[in-house]
Each structure stands twice: as structure tokens, then as C-alpha cells.
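_Per-residue structure_
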Amino acid sequence: MSEHILFLTGKLAEKSLRRVLESMQPTDFTYEVRQLGVSVAALMTTKLIGKRLGDTGQANRIIIPGRCRGDIEALSDSLKTTVERGPTELKDLPAYLGQSVKKTDLRAYSVQIFAEIVDAPNMPVGEIVRRAQTYQQDGANVIDVGCLPGVSFPHLAESVQALKAEGFKVSIDSLEPRDLIAGANAGADYLLSLSEKSLWVAEEVDAIPIVIGSPPNNARSLYRSMRTLLKHGKLFIADSILDPIHFGFTESIVRYRNLRKLFPNAEIIMGTGNLTELTHADSAGTSALLAGIMSELDIQHLLVTEVSDHCRHAVREADLARRIMHAAKIDNVPPKGYDSGLMGLHECEPFPYTAEEIEELAAQVKDPNYRIQLSSKGIHTYNRNGMQTTTDPYEVYPHLDIENDSGHAFYLGVEHARAQIAWQLGKRYEQDEELNWGVATRKEAEDLSRYKAAGSTMHTRKARKARRKDRGKN
């Protein structure tokens, strides 16, 4: 028996809702559309629905507009039927209902992230712990305590002990054997990095060594160290070293491929800083590409740094990238359509409505409240007095009736600025909502399953009143 869904809407959106549902031609559910007598669906509240709905018919589920305010759990209890908020845009309804959407759980991943605190010797212990907590929140599994050449680190052991006391896995990053031994004796779990010359350290401590060649990009030297450790039954992780562009980058990718072919069961780590830090390009895309290479080569560990300002979110970018690649690998498909968190500048479908559809909707509006929507042709601002289409907010200003309302003017200025940015970049714009920058902003990264932007906050009484006045777009 198929599910029967009851969709609730307002006068202006009813036609569009029916059109979307008809285009879906659903086979796994039947549906009914009810218009509850309000012009703008977004102005519905759960209390209003409770008063006006009456019976729910044969509905197994009720879907209300995404901007509908109120307690849906209380409404569900009173109606004795499951109530859900749908998407804020009707064009997103098919995806919301499961059409062409991958359902993979992005909580799963197969790569362990080492987040390096590169300037640890210059930081007090408390600050090291706080930095570690931030990295952990962003997705790090291991805190890598970096040592600086020629810089003393008298509180190395104390730092490791403090991190371990907080429950962190810890690695020590140094080419000096004395630092590695001190860190291991304090409780470090991993040592970066041992070479043929310092391989003896692995026999002195219990920490798992991460081995490199001598010099670092010498593959034959790395292989010799790996075979020595294998012979003695010692656990280790191999690092073939990722070089910067124009300094051996392509060849270093080949080295990783050869390493995996020669040692199909080896634990391998890739440090991405030489590419992300030394390339002035948005690091989210770079992180995604490297995560894809790691997924193909079954590289299980990733060392991430956040030194340059343009890499200040590299850990959380790597975190989402590893999850997407893991899901795509399981599904045996390209890593597309799982999550938009790494697409900070653009979106796959930035303009859900055409200019013609917006014009048709605008013709039905009978109130003075301004709506703002985007199409590929520009920014559309409309109310009952007509619609203005422009790509420059200054051009629409003379047509707005806001001369005696400073709060309303501020609100519309903010919204048009967001709309212009969204139109220029090709991003999704929703009136009354901040633009979604993916994991580039912390609030976008708080919920791995959605990375959805929170609503905007207005700071003046008049502006808040104006915002309530113009909330929603049907």
C-alpha cells in the first residue's frame, strides 16, 4: 500500500505546487493538495493550520511549507499524523521526497586526519590544548604537535601529557630524534618522521613511526625502511611526500601510486600542505581533489595544516571531503550530489525559477510587501505595484516605497546586497536567509548531514519589524 501525503500551501503557491507534483509523476505515494486560505504559504503557523485544517483524510504524512513557524511536534500530536516541514523552495521538493538524491550516511569515513599545530613550541600548553579542541571539532582524529627546527621546546612532554589527559590521540612532528623520543615517552601515539638514519628510534619507543625517505622524496630509501620494519614486525605508516607544483608535484603523485602497488597492504599517509598552502586557490576544491586521489589509492591517513589564511578551514574541508569520497567509493559513482559543503562559491542549481515563472508569480501578488527572487536574468523585486528586474541594486532603489521607513530600507538593502552576490556567483538565494558558504564558515560546518545556513539576524528594532513584514516568498 503506497503512502498518501497531504501537502498544505497558500493561494499564491498552490498552482506551482501542483505543477511540481505533477511533473514528478510519483509511483511510491499518492497525494492531496490543500490551500488553507492564506495568500503567502510562508506566513502560515502551526496554530493556524491546527485551526483551519479540519480532517486529514487518508494522509499518512503531512508536509507543510518550509518557512512555516511553530511547533510541528505539537501539531503532529493534535492531528495524530506525522507533520514535516518541506523545503523552502518548491523546486527542491522532488529532492526532498527522495528523487535523484543519494541517501548515504556521511558520518562514515575511512581516512584518519592528523591536524598539525605547526607553531607549538611558541605556544603555552593551554593554547595548544585549545587549538587541539578546535581541530577536533572540525574533524581531526589526531593532534600533530609540530616542532620547529632550531627552536627549543622545553614544554614538549608537558604538552603531550596535557593533550593525552584530554583524550586526544597525539603525534610528534620533528626530524630530531630527541624530540621524538621525548614525545613518545610522554605518551605520543605516532612519530613524524623517521628515515633510514633515525629508524633506530622505532626500537626505543612504543609509538607508531611514520617513515619517509632520505632525502624525503627518495622512494628507494623509503622502501628499505619499510622492509626493515616489516621484517621486525613493527607497525608503521609510510609517507611518500607530496611535493609542491613545479617542484615535483606530478612525480610525487606517481610515487604514491607506485608505493601502493609495491606495498598493497601498507598504511600510508599523505601530507597535503605543500599543495594547499603553496597554491593560491581556494583550498576546498584542492582538498576534494586530493581526497579523491587518496580514495583511489586507499591512503588511510591525511596530514593537514592551517598556516596560510586561505587554508584556515583546511581541517573541516578535509573532513567533509573524506566523507564524500568514502560514500562515492562505496556507491561506485563519481563524488557528485552527496553534499554541497565544498562548493562555497557556486551551486549546481542556483536559480530554481525562470524569469517567466517569477513574473507569473508576481502577477498574483496583491499586497505591498516586497519579494526578492533570482533567475538567470537577474534580481527580481516585486509587490502588488509591479516587478523590477536588475543586476544592480542601485537601479531598483528609486522604485521602492521606503523613503519614510529607515528600518525597511536597511532590510531591503541587506537583502539586495545578498541577492546581487548570489546572482554574480551563481549561488542559491532565499529571502530572509544568509547565503550558504559551505564549510567555509563555522556555522555551516556544525551539522555534517546538512551544512545548512542559519537565518540572518537583524540588529535594529525597525529592521526586525520590517523583516517580519516581508518574510517569505510564497
About this structure: The radius of gyration is 28 Å. DSSP finds 18 helices and 15 strands in the chain. The first strand starts at residue 3 and ends at 9. The CA atoms of residues 269 and 301 lie 4 Å apart.
